Structure formats: C-alpha cells, structure tokens
Amino acid sequence: MSLNYSEISPVVQTTHGKVQGTLLKGLYDEQFYAFDGIPYAASPLGSLRFKEPQDLKPWNGTRDCSKPLNKCLQLASLTNKVEGSEDCLFLNMSVKKLHSKQPLPMMVFIHGGLFNRGDPSRRAWAPDYLMHEDVIHVSIGHRLGALGFLSFADPSLEIPGNAGLKDIILALKWIKANAANFNGDPNRITIFGHSSGSMLVHSLLASPQTEGLFHKAILMAGFSMEINRLPHLEFRLAKQLGYEGENVDLQVFEFLSKADPNLLVAADVLTPEEKGQGHSLSFRPSIESYVTPNAVLLAEPKQLQRNTWSNRIPIIVGANSEEGLGSITDLKTNPRVMQEFRDYPERVLPNFLKHCCDSEQKRELGLHLLKYFCGAHGEELSLEHFNALAEVFTHNTFLELDRFIQARLAYAQAPTYFYRFNFDSPDFNFYRIRYFGLEQRGVTHVDELGYIYVLPATFKLDKSRPEFTTILRFVSMFVHFAATSDPNSPLTKPLVNWKPVNQSETRMVLNISEELKFIPLPEMAKLKFYDRLFKLAGVTIF
C-alpha cells in the first residue's frame, strides 16, 4: 500500500490547541511527519524557577511546530558556552503515518548528558531510522542541572526536588492524552532512555506517580539502584555565585532564585577531591524529604523496586561491550588523570560504593578492585594499564545493570530482555572516534545511539554494509517490542531467539554485532569478584 503523504503541513488538534507540522524526508528517503517544539507545560520562568511544572494554558489559533525550539539551558560540552533557554518544556514528535487501520505504538525518548546537558531534538538525535517502521517517536525536553534538580528540605519553599523528573511525568500525561490525535496508541507507550536518561527511566519505573503512563521501558547504559547524591549542593552553588550567608534553606533559595540563570548552569560545584575520586554528576534526582501530592521518589529506587507497579511491565536493558572507554577519554592525553588514579584508588569504584563507605574503606575497596583488574595500584599504574582500567569501568556498568536484573528476577512478573551491543565499526562508532580518533577500537558509551539515530556526524551508508544491516535489526527489535512486548521481530526472529533473562546460573545475553547471537554474558566471570566488595562494604545487591 503506498502511503499518502499529500499533506505537506498537516494540522492536528491537541488538548491545548492546534499544531502544524511538516513533511520530512529522512537520510534514506523515508517520509514522515514532524511536529517539533510542542509545549506541554507552562514556561518555568520567574517565580516558577525550580518549582514543579505547572499546567499549560490553551492557545488560540494554530501553532507552528515545523522546527525544533530551544534545548534547556546548559553548559555545552563541545563549546564550553552556555546554550539553550530556561523556556524549554517542549516535546518533539515524528509520526510515520497520521492515518492507518491500527493506531501506531509510541516510543518516548529521554536523552542523556550527566543530568545537566543534552538536546532532545532531531538536531542531536534525528529519528530517521525509526521511521523505516510504523511507529511514533517522541522526545522530551526537561529541565537540567540545578534548574531541574535543586531541592530544599524546608516545605514552605515548595521545592522538594526532582522538577526535571516531574517535567517528564507531565509530558507523559500530555502524550497519553494526545496519542490518538497523532494516530498513536495510548495503550502502547514505551519509554526509553540512554545514560543519565536511562537513570531517569529507572527512577520513573520505581515511582508510584507513573503508573499507567507507559507500558514498556528500555534502559540503555544507565542504572541507578541508589540515588548517590552529593551533600549540600544548593549551598555550594550559592557560595560559588557569591552568597555569604549560612546554609539556611530560605536564604539560599532567595539568593539562587534571583541569580543569573547562565551562571547557575555554568557553575562548577564539585571539589577538586570529588573530581579526583571520579565524581562527575552534581545536580541529579534526589529523595524528596517530605511528602507532596506529586512526589516522585520518597525512598531509594532499590527499595521502591520491590513493590513497584512496573514489575508488571516488560523491559529491555543493555549496554555496550567497551562502555568503560568513555570513562578514561583523557587518560592518554592528560597526565593529571593517571595521577588521580594513583592518588585516589576509589576513583575506580562503582558510584554507590563511593557514596556508602567512609574514606578509609573506599580507599581499601578501590585498591582491591585495581589489584584484581590491573594487578597494580598507586605509582605502579601506567598507560600499560589503559585497557585494564577501561575494563573496570565497563564491568561497573554491567554490575549496575546486573543488580537491576537481579531485582527484576526477584520481584517482577513480566519479562526482562538483555542485550550487549558489540558492533565495532572502524568508522561508524562516532563517540569512540570523537574521543580517541581512528586508532582505538571498541564500542564505547553512546556508540550504540549511532545505530538508532542520525547524529550530526552520521553519513549515508552503502546498504550492503553490515552497519546498515545492524541499524535495521536494532531498530526493528526495539519497535517490535514497543508494538508487541516481544523484541523478536520478523527481521531478526529467523536469525536468533532472544529469550528473557531467567534464574539459571548462566546469564544469557543477546550479543548485537555483525551477527546476532544469544550467548553467555562474557563479563559475568569478573562480575563475581564484586560480591566480595559488597560484603566488605555491607551493602545489599538489590
């Protein structure tokens, strides 16, 4: 059946007013409709700064939604300049078909970027490849950094925290309410996120606030069983910007609410010691210190997960085979980084161990980990240990992922599918190339997104290349999961049977490379070592 794309600028009626989209053509000539920059909440400006998002007032006339609008205010990693705007609560929709017999499944993306940067729009993540399939792709702009994750214990200030997460929840309510207007199925909504975006998905899975807003989830390379937030960030931020008072919530809040927003997002609140220990996340979700009607997290995700509603929905989890390369990008070029590994053995610990132990114990656990992976620590460490250090961080990611899987096996009634992305392309793994040039091989953090999205660095592939085949397979599995709750798509089912994880001794995983293979997880042998660290630290796995 040929698709009728006769409308160049379709107009859709939403719950808040009319929006006009545009007809686009993707990298491989697939046609689809884009509705970009649709507002879903009131602009969080003035007295609404740091507060939970407020309902949007309807608009008159037709709103032009043919182009992406501002990303949320942030210090951009490439330019080191402040970019974006405080007025950023928009979502972007790409719709394969506006009319079909059956409404289409919806996939809602939450971008990564250390909770303090990132662009949800097609400028950064263009969903052309997803538009090979019958699906609607939505991405959400939410507040970042201090603007999204500031929190105060004083209830009179009405800033219990997690405004950025509450933005996403309000957007999900808008998406569900408006699904049918865009030919979407309100009962087949899948949320998926990458890195810190995946950690946000993890928080949304644990929260009672999200029940019924989505029906499946995909978590890519970001897990957060514990919140692991550093102390007194609000006070530290205010001091950084010239505040001279005490750490009193009301006074700190009054100072920050008048501060220049560009300075708020550019300030660096981490101490030299915290940086040496490898802390890179400052403002991030928090456990809210008092109950409100919209509270998202009132306990650790690890605790909430035992009884959460999302134990009844299917999920996919996964990570890349050389995730850890992304944690040592400067090791070869900046001698100070190697010195920090020598001075701070705790730098190699998984995040939650850095937060739950005293400094002496952290140091000891870090030495254990370095000895196990590198056979060396302190001044013995050198660039000869580059691969071993990368391997530590790769295993830290798979450890967090496996803790989540173990919790799902203990408490969930729905399947959990596990993949390991392992396509080591010489010229199409854009993040590895960005960090290391063409000499280094491996599949580092973020490399898999080049097989789901068109990035600024993407080029058109000859369709005979295995990278192109991998894009089609990866996308078809995700979309088939969004449509049916089963990722075994017509394209991949003849090649491999991807089964959910089970309680057996062997942790099986779908290895996605030039071939698809269902194999025992290669990282599992070394993950066993971490059990000792848990015992020494007195921490439960899930």
Give an account of the 3D structure.
With 542 residues, this protein is an alpha/beta fold. The protein has a domain of 274 residues: Rossmann fold. Helix content is 29%, strand content 15%. The strands form three sheets. An eleven-stranded mixed β-sheet has the order 3-4-8-10-9-11-12-13-14-15-16, with helices on both faces. Strands 1-2-5 form a three-stranded mixed β-sheet, with no helix packed on it. A two-stranded antiparallel ribbon has the order 6-7. The model has no long low-confidence stretch (mean pLDDT 96).
Which structural class fits the helix and strand makeup? alpha/beta
What are the low-pLDDT stretches, counting only 5+ consecutive residues below 50?
A: none
What's the CATH superfamily of the domain at 1-274, by name?
Alpha/Beta hydrolase fold, catalytic domain
Helical residues, percent: 25-40%
Number of helices: 16
Mean pLDDT: 96
CATH class division of the domain at 1-274: Alpha Beta
